[in-house]
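user:
I keep going back and forth on a fold encoding question. Separate attempts, laid side by side, tell us more than any discussion would. Would you put together a sequence-and-structure record for a protein of your own picking? Write it directly below this note and I will take it from there.

assistant:
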Amino acid sequence: MSQAPISAYVHIPFCRRRCFYCDFPISVLGNQRRGETSLTVESYVDLLCAEIAATPRDGFPLQTVFFGGGTPSLLSVTQVETILAQLDRQFGLKADAEISMEMDPGTFSLEHLQGYRAAGVNRISLGVQSLDDQRLESCGRYHRLADVLQAVDWLHQTAMPNWSMDLISGLPHLTLADWQADLSKAVALDPHHLSVYDLTVEPQTVFARRYQPGTAPLPTEQQTAAMYRLAQSYLTAQGYEHYEVSNYARLGHRCRHNLTYWRNQPYFGFGLGATSYTQLQRVSRPRTLTTYRQWVAAFQANGGVHGEPPTPPQEQLLDRLMVGLRLAEGITGDEIRQLCDAATWERLYQALQAHSQQGWVVVEGDTWATLEWVRLTDPEGFLFSNVVLSDCFNLFPDVGDFLHRVES
């Protein structure tokens, strides 16, 4: 039986500019002031609240809310309050709910931060990406280092109980020494949490037109692997727990919302391009404002029913492997026994055993009945997770369709 969702993702698609590596569904506002963009943003907030209002309540109050984007810090305090109030009316919000907001340096003031905090936001994900002005310029970021330092100072002034910083490795011209400098500067700013991602050159982006992965001025695969190992060794030595492939946290500061995804638990997704997972159904919203508006109208007319078929059992298993093996804790034997029979596990076990011998996978219990855990090693198993997963997925005849659905 499917669990009731206790998490909600809210997509805010507005940005000052599109970064050169970005392929997210966004709407570029340019350098307009907040008041000048209010009509565009206000109409979207109304549409977003209409989708939330049309969604049937499915059990428990929300324990996490995540405002992602785009740049949610382009919203006014009142707009954030409006969305949270609609979520509370429709589903309820637990008193200790984790309410996260992605914010870009240079897009908010101390007054705005204080207002968001008063509205209930208690976790900030700061989109820093680099702590070097030249690299920020080379990847099309709006902010500069001075904006980062000011934003961090305001976070400390407001005593934000949990805040995270995003960094990207593998950027053009980035060396291992440059990467060490970025990591050292980041730790000195004392975030509770760090998300460290390797650059992916997505099709139809500025970077895709300029660069070929693995060729100069982008680092080679060997160099990006060295950057990954460096981040793991340095950040864990600084007291951060490496609890997920790309994420590090001080004690008690894991991202509760993202754990919902990585444990393959159900969640609501609202807004342009967002995906929800409820009643074993994955539903993606359209990626343009016009088609999203039409989608919401049809959703309202259909009484809040998506009409998508449930995820087949085989794909539930592959989903669980794909996201669960991202976590250092891995996947329990009980979870696997709920998703597959002994014969299926035996096939998976044979695929995993080859990588166990390489030191990438740990399997505790060698039979379906005695299995306790499956997890990847850190850092080598995490580095080669795509190889491990590909070998598992290739055991299933319709893997091509599954991978296409996941990647899209």
Observations:
- Residues 313-407 form one domain.
- Confidence is low (pLDDT under 50) at residues 33-37, 399-408.
- The longest strand covers residues 93-103.
